[in-house]
Amino acid sequence: MKTLYLVRHAKSSWEYNLPDRERPLKKRGLNDAEAMALAVSKEIATPQLFISSPANRAHTTFLFFKEAFGVADEKCRVDERLYDFGGQDVMQVIAETPAELETLMIFGHNHAFTSIVNMLGDKYIDNLPTCGFAAIRFQQDDWDNLSDGKTIMTLFPKEIR
C-alpha cells in the first residue's frame, strides 16, 4: 500500500521583478506554511521521502514541513521535474519512487497538483489552494501506474486560520 502526500507551495509574491522560479513567499505564505506544516505533522506519520520543486516558493514551503517533521537531509531532495504545471513530469517523479517506500510527500505547483489529486484520488476538488495538502492512499505495491486511490485527507490553510 502506498500513500502520496501533495503540498502546493504557499502564497507567493509577485511584487518583485524576479524570474518565476525565484519568487519568494509573501508574509501570509510564510505564516500559512508554518501553520500547515505543524498541523499536518500532528495528523500523519513522517513520510519516508520528501521531494521538492526547486522553485523558491515551493522549496521554502518544503523547509517548514522538513522542520515540523524533523526530517534528516538524506530523506529529502529537490527534483527539477516538480517545477511542472501540467503534471506529466510530476507523475514521472512519483513513478520513479523506490518500491520499498510506502510514503512520499511532494511539494510543487498548480495546475499539476490539482489535476493529480483529481486524477488519482476519489474526492474531487476545484482547486488545491496555496499551501493546500492532500493525501491519497493506493492499494498498489509499486509507485508506477498508480490508480483508483482513496483521498484520505485534505487540509487547507483557511481551515486552520
Report what the structure shows.
This protein has 161 residues and is an alpha/beta fold. The protein has a single domain (2-159), classed as Phosphoglycerate mutase-like (Rossmann fold, 3-Layer(aba) Sandwich). It is built from four helices and six strands. It has helices at 27-43, 56-69, 88-95, 112-120, and strands at residues 2-8, 49-52, 76-78, 103-108, 133-138, 150-155. Helix 2 links the parallel strand 2 (49-52) and strand 3 (76-78). It starts with a strand and ends in a 6-residue tail after the last strand.
Helix and strand layout, with pairings?
Layout (H helix, E strand, L loop, with lengths): L1 E7 L18 H17 L5 E4 L3 H14 L6 E3 L9 H8 L7 E6 L3 H9 L12 E6 L11 E6 L6
Helix pairs in contact: 1-2
